[in-house]
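Case study 2.
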Amino acid sequence: MLSDLSMDCVHVRFSTRYPGLFFLPLFLTLTVYSLTFAGVSSDIRGSKAPSVSAGSRSPGNAHAKPAKAEGKSGETGVVAKTGEKGVITELDLADFSAAESCYGSDAINSRKAGFMRMLEASVGEEILSRNAGAGITSADYEAELARVDRETRAPEILDCIKKHFGFDKESGKFTVAGGRDRYKKVFLRKYLAQNRLFRFIHYDPKVQAEAYRIKGAVLEQTSGGASFAALAAKYGLVYSTHQYTVEERKTDMVNNSSQSFAAAPEGGIPWSPFEKQFIEEHLAGLKPGDMGKAAIESDDDFQFVRLVSVTDGKYDFESLRIKKRDDYFRTSEKLRCAIYDAELNKWLLGISGNPMLGILQFNNPVYQGP
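Prediction:
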């Protein structure tokens, strides 16, 4: 399945600061996710990148010399190791800070932000390689590198980022040894890993085996006449009723007890073109009492719909949702992780609310946690 996954990853900063620069995929929430946890966002934003040499902070210098990590990793500059091959170095963090600085004065380029993004990329690639059998290949990196060059609409920012890694525009090559690989690891890897990881977790039948099992049971039992409400009670599903219209409502019904399907709760819900699209795609071909033949699959759930009635362009229907599992990281086999920087280790162990961290098994010689 993963071989067919889209590689249209998106750099979050290009998309959020410059709307329309890239096609924004549905997996955006995972991409920006590490910077929005309770208690984490303010910490990252309030923590500036450490003082390093002017050359390493200045975009265009690919000769940055990493500082030594405070831990006793046995390898100069190694900050952390995750799984079999996930290594984060001081040079990675310096590269991240310099690259992010290209976005301007409000860039989130602190050392902690860089560490979190690099750690998530390491975890993502380890899971893909170990559990999905589909790690990121050299060909994947080259394809993504070419796509970003081809599709960016903020070339000045991309030029700034690539210049830091030693890219020469005249020759069209990375002229500094290791610059191309550093660009891939620090700039491209996190988006490739997150894209594939999101698709794997949300759409792979093995991961979502229980949701697929219930989906099959719902199809079988509704064909035998079972009601949505009864199935919701039996399997713990989400049952609801809705009224959609093809055109914008002139007035919203508010608490109209004479209507079994009120168009809006108190205050009214503004009409959205999504209603028209949903009707055309999922309800228009049905007769009252008919159920859609196939489940509507999204990132988060499977949805079944049954048309109840159509009156004056108003489509009343029932909905039955099967939530996909969202505890993959907590229940998956652990990944060994050692952090050799005492400050980063203590900070990371104090974070709550990030499910991706639930897969890590810490083996740390520096800091054992509170």
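The chain has two domains: 2-205+331-362, 209-323.
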